[in-house]
Design goal:
With 237 residues, this protein is α/β, with parallel strands linked by helices. It contains 9 helices and 8 strands. Strand 5, helix 3 and strand 6 form a beta-alpha-beta unit.
């Protein structure tokens, strides 16, 4: 089964979402990442600079229209279109409708199955949901993970049994009032961890360590699209 992935975001999605997560749990499928696009820098890579070029929300919807049409004009079609974006505290139903409309603008895609899914509020919620297999075990954080967890729950109100509930929508910025990934970074700064948490370095590696059942049990928004994808894949066998 060939699945075209249109993901929002940057380096976490470029380096981790397909090889360390989707291919691991759906090994019989071929995932072709259409977005985000990784652009290798000319010359030496600069520390602290992100080279994963991704869009999100409305910008991602616009990018889907462009890249989907180009792909269908120049390649053999896929079996399913999978969109995964950070929900970032936005209204889930409105975001789903926006992405479906973006796909429907491309006439050649009208008969292709599609699934719209979200990481809520960000993909780092998946790491927090399975903390004991991700952050707690990583060499950079394992000596401080208990203190980090306490600080995140007490000072940032992160619910480790329901991390998708973090923060609230800010209409002025069209995103969460607080960024989950930034609070995770701040927790590593609080306790002088071996390394500061990095979305580009740690998130891709730790996605590989997640136990799906733990994630499904704690993240209902994740479970919706993951179970839908599982059902469609295995019903075709």
């Amino acid at each position: 089964m060939v699945i075209w992935l249109f993901a929002g975001g940057g380096e976490s999605e470029v380096h981790g979402l397909v090889p360390n997560f989707l291919e691991k749990h759906f090994p019989d499928c071929q995932f072709d990442r259409k977005t985000p696009i990784y652009q290798k820098p000319a010359g030496k890579r600069k520390a602290g600079v992100s080279y994963g070029y991704g869009k999100t929300s409305k910008s991602l919807a616009k990018q889907i229209k462009e890249r989907l049409k180009t792909a269908l004009d120049n390649e053999e079609s896929c079996d399913l279109i999978l969109v995964i974006d950070d929900l970032d505290c936005r209204d889930q139903n409105k975001q789903i409708e926006m992405f479906l409309q973006a796909i429907d603008t491309v006439k050649a895609a009208k008969d292709i199955e599609r699934i719209i899914g979200f990481a809520a509020p960000e993909i780092e919620s998946w790491l927090i949901a399975d903390w004991n297999n991700t952050i707690a075990k990583h060499v950079d954080f394992r000596n401080n993970h208990q203190a980090m967890r306490w600080w995140l729950s007490q000072n940032k109100n992160i619910a480790f049994d329901a991390p998708e509930s973090f923060s609230a929508y800010d209409p002025d910025r069209d995103c969460c009032k607080e960024k989950l990934s930034e609070t995770l970074i701040e927790s590593t700064e609080q306790y002088n961890c071996k390394e500061i948490f990095s979305k580009g370095v740690h998130t891709p590696l730790l996605l590989k360590e997640i136990k799906i059942e733990t994630l499904r049990n704690k993240c209902s928004i994740f479970r919706e699209w993951y179970d839908d994808l599982s059902l469609r894949i295995y019903s075709k066998k």
